[in-house]
# Entry
Amino acid sequence: MNKIKALREKLRISIYDIAKVTGLAPSYVSNLEHGRRTNPSLEVMQKISSALGEKVEEVFKLNQEPDKKARMNILK
# Structure
């Protein structure tokens, strides 16, 4: 989730700013940034992305292609 921190720092806004705009706790935003929370809900992803002015898929790593293992299972 380092992309959140990179975008936030690029915009020169604090974790508290993101928290205020999104209604999330600053500690939750910090945990996302540091990878201590790795499965945010779609609603949370949308709130954070909107606060950063980016699309959800740009901020969060969303698998748009199946990984190699999944592709191999499909081919079986």
